[in-house]
Amino acid sequence: MRKPIIFPIIFLFIFFTSCTIEDEAIDLTYRDDILIETTVFFTEDSEDYDISFTYFETDGYNNLTKKTEGYSGGIRGNKQVFYHTVKEYKKAGLKMIPEEQISEVWIDLYLLGAGKDIFHHFISRDNKGFTFLYDFETYSQEVIWEE
């Protein structure tokens, strides 16, 4: 007795149709890696710190995603440098919550491996929180100050 052949044909049709539907995601693996270097200057030398940043990055689906990273420890001198990498695509940046012990913040964007500041240098000299976003398409910054 012969098995019905219609079921395997339907299965193969559905399988190949679902595999050929175009996904709207953009492959970011070939985009350049950008290093966000955040230098935080503290009001006093050799002070313990507890600080957090929320990093923003545009994913392959054109959504601005966020990731929070916290840091704590002690420092010698009055500054500490923090690093985070993102892909060079649409917008990326960070949000910083104000801390009384912080006097100044520098943000530098580097092309990873190039060793020079190719994109931007931003300085905050106020003890305010801010959201810094850099647009890689227009080569411009957007800064939103916290009240």
Distance between the ends: 79 Å
Q: In sequence order, what are the helices and strands, one letter per element?
A: HEEEEEEEEE
The number of helices is 1
The coarse overall form would be elongated
Report on the structure:
- By secondary structure, the chain is mainly beta.
- The protein has one domain (33-145).
- The chain is built from one helix and nine strands.
- The protein has one helix at residues 6-20; strands at residues 33-42, 48-58, 64-74, 79-87, 91-96, 102-111, 117-124, 130-135, 140-145.
- A five-stranded antiparallel beta sheet has the order 3-2-5-8-9, with no helix packed on it.
- The longest helix has 15 residues, at 6-20.
- The N and C termini lie far apart (79 Å).
What attributes does this structure have?
elongated, mainly beta, 1 helix, four-stranded antiparallel β-sheet, 9 strands, Lipoprotein, five-stranded antiparallel β-sheet, 147 residues
